[in-house]
Design brief:
heterodimer, A: about 190 residues, mainly alpha, 2 domains, 6 helices, about 60% helix, flat, B: about 500 residues, 2 strands, globular
């Protein structure tokens, strides 16, 4: 019951503080990185705010007031986060759920699905592009769950069919019934 | 009587076959979304926002309200039956509900949650019906300085009071405000942070942020960190409450409603405080055998009270949304975005300019509550089947819907890349326990607050003193300071007391 209660900037109920040492050295390093990231964001926002005109018209504040305020407050928050990280870790931190370390392989699979979808949706059309995204993402999630059958041809085919079975009706429902523009491979409105 | 007539007219609009169908589909979809882990009501509404381009405003608002409501009912099912509660709103329900389910009383827990939600939802809807018009009448008298202060109050409570850490809450809020700055300034037309990208001139859509922060981040997080987590599911059993269950539930429902409703009305938001408060109240009031069930076999009051409090808060939160245009949660923020898509700005004028819409929406809440009771009590075993969908397929499928929401809004591939970036931000925020609600609320309320602030200062002829010269705005400023300071003072006092007691203990 020492550090968390001494922080001037923490609020909330009297949840028990995390056990000392629960956040190891790598965690501290990550927290420092997040604090630094906030500071960098604040700096970028300030740099961008230089380009915003300050003509304030009738009022005393122009369009550049809020950007400056935001970057100033974020800078203060960044400094506080850095200070917290370096003096025993973030206060009142709930340990995130799940594994300690990220499954990098799964991350790559899911990211590939999302980014390829973004890159290919106008060429392949919604149905095929989303099916591809689904197949890659489900592959990553299966591997993360340690499913032994993840890489087998049969699983890939099942996923292909499932992906098509989800994205095709979604495409039809949105384009045919709700008349929302989604890209197709052809101009028929069905593929 | 005026209100009664207006409500009747609202029922006439809401009860057309087409609108009833929208309500039913919304409720069913909302329940499904609530039951399924991984997506909540905010993201479901966000993903479906593109329909606002085609569907008429009353129908789509009825539909969205159904999702908003349905998810609350569905969420309790998951938190009772699974060992992992879905969202914060059902966290408290999970504490006792899960224990009840483990000792074979899942059916009773589900029943008391559904009936309690119905009762609380209906009572809170009556409160909305009776009080919202008066609040709107009052709110018409507020000027820009008062509005700005109200929004500051909402920002303060969402970021500094509700979360655990003020620094992380403030960081999240200002990241949201920064996102809201991107695009063309609405007063002067100056471009801000557009980096020369024409796509950014229109600003970042709320859909992108909500879908990215919740859906995409959830999928990425599941893949990266939760692959090995195994969920155990409790058996359902018969949905039935004994006479003793009823006797214990009814007072808890009423107390939960009484606690929850005021929390929804104030522009402070969040269901955590009222649900925890209701839980604490029930635990304190329970005696003997009932009290012994808390934390062991699972006490039914501990499910009935918080569930009622939750639904009452969520329903009453429509009062600040409709009358002041101030959202206090992720979902109400996205709902505000839906209104904006139609060029409607919720606020005091809404009750005069869009009276038909408002009253149809309120009437649909009554109808939706009844539909949800039917959908959730006799048909609960159907929804439970949704929990059997394997996680990898479920999460990968969510990405398809995320694509529809993000791409369908503006047909821009740029948005899909941005969606991925926001997803990464969401994972980072989740790993380091940053709250997400301040981002969404800050982003959607930020531009409105900025406009009010600049108008207020124009009224004051360039002087900031305008916020101190008007009684209402000074009062609101005092409240903002109080919510910031009082909890800290109380905490310091508690610590002092603890320090005084410790030597005695030792």
């Amino acid at each position: 019951m020492t550090e968390p209660l001494n922080s001037p900037l923490t609020a909330g109920d009297a949840s028990p503080p995390p056990p000392p040492g629960a956040a190891g050295v790598p965690a501290t390093r990550m927290q420092v990185a997040v604090g630094a990231g906030v500071l960098v964001t604040a700096a970028c926002l300030a740099w961008g705010a230089l380009d915003i005109p300050s003509n304030s018209g009738y009022g005393g504040v122009g369009p550049n007031f809020l950007p400056w305020l935001v970057s100033a407050v974020l800078a203060v928050c960044g400094i506080f986060l850095l200070w917290e990280a370096l003096s025993g870790g973030y206060r009142e931190l709930d340990a995130a759920t799940g594994a300690e370390r990220a499954d990098k392989g799964a991350f790559v699979w899911v990211s590939a699905g999302l980014l390829l979808n973004a890159a290919l949706i106008t060429t392949l059309g919604f149905i095929l592009s989303c099916t591809l995204c689904y197949m890659l993402a489900v592959q990553g999630l299966r591997r993360a769950a340690g499913q032994p059958a993840a890489g087998q041809v049969r699983t890939w085919i099942t996923d292909l069919v499932t992906g098509l079975l989800i994205s095709a009706p979604v495409f039809w429902a949105f384009t045919q019934f709700l008349a929302i523009n989604l890209p197709g491979l052809t101009n028929t409105g069905w593929l | 009587m005026e209100i009664f007539d207006a409500l009747l007219a609202g029922f006439a609009t809401a009860a057309t076959p087409a609108n009833l169908l929208w309500a039913l589909v919304g409720c069913a979809l909302g329940t499904a979304v609530g039951v399924l882990p991984g997506i909540g009501p905010a993201v479901a509404v966000a993903m479906l926002l593109p329909i606002t381009a085609k569907v008429e405003v009353t129908a789509s608002m009825i539909f969205f309200a159904g999702i908003y409501y349905g998810a609350m009912y569905g969420g309790s099912t998951t938190s009772i039956l699974l060992n992992t509660p879905g969202e914060t709103a059902s966290m408290v329900t999970a504490m006792e509900g899960n224990k009840m389910a483990k000792s074979g009383r899942a059916g009773a827990a589900l029943a008391t949650a559904a009936i309690g939600s119905f009762i609380a939802g209906t009572i809170a809807t009556v409160v909305v019906t009776l009080f919202a018009p008066y609040v709107a009448d009052f709110a018409v008298k507020l000027g820009p300085p008062e509005y700005f202060m109200l929004m500051v109050l909402a920002f303060t409570t969402v970021s500094a009071v509700l979360g655990k850490s003020t620094v992380r809450g403030m960081t999240a809020l200002f990241v949201g405000l920064a996102l809201g700055c991107i695009g063309m300034d609405q007063i002067s037309g100056a471009a801000r942070y557009t980096l020369g990208q024409p796509e950014l001139l229109d600003g970042i859509d709320i859909v992108l942020v909500a879908v990215g922060l919740f859906a995409v981040a959830e999928v990425l997080h599941a893949a990266m960190y939760e692959g090995k987590v195994i969920d155990t599911q409790n058996r359902l059993g018969r949905v039935h409450m004994t006479k003793r269950d009823w006797k214990r539930s009814v007072p808890a429902w009423i107390r939960g409603t009484l606690i929850g409703t005021p929390f929804g009305c104030i522009p402070a938001g969040g269901t955590e405080i009222p649900t925890f408060l209701s839980y604490a109240t029930e635990k304190k009031l329970a005696k003997g055998e009932d009290h012994a069930e808390f934390g062991t076999k699972g006490a039914i009051e501990g499910v009935a009270g918080p569930e009622a409090a939750n639904n009452a808060t969520v329903t009453a939160a429509l009062i600040p949304l409709l009358t002041l245009g101030i959202p206090t949660s992720n979902t109400t923020a996205v709902l505000l975005g839906a209104f904006q898509n139609y060029g409607i700005n919720p606020g005091p004028q809404l009750f005069t300019t869009s009276a038909t819409l408002v009253w149809a929406l309120i009437a649909s809440l009554y109808i939706g509550n009844i539909m949800l009771l039917v959908l959730n009590l006799p048909m609960v075993s159907l929804w439970v089947k949704l929990l059997k969908v394997p996680k990898p397929q479920l999460y990968a499928g969510i990405l398809i819907f995320a694509t529809v929401g993000a791409y369908g809004m503006r047909q821009s591939t740029f948005d899909l890349f941005l969606l991925y970036g926001i997803g990464l931000l969401g994972v980072l925020m989740r790993r380091f326990d940053f709250p997400t609600a301040p981002v969404v609320v800050g982003m959607i309320l930020g531009p409105l607050a900025e406009a009010q602030m600049r108008n207020a200062i124009s009224i004051g002829e360039g002087s900031w003193m305008v916020f101190l010269q008007r009684p209402m705005s000074v009062t609101l400023l005092a409240i903002v300071l109080a919510v910031l300071i009082v909890p800290r003072v109380m905490k310091t006092m508690a610590r002092r007391k603890l320090q005084r007691l410790q030597p005695l203990d030792a």
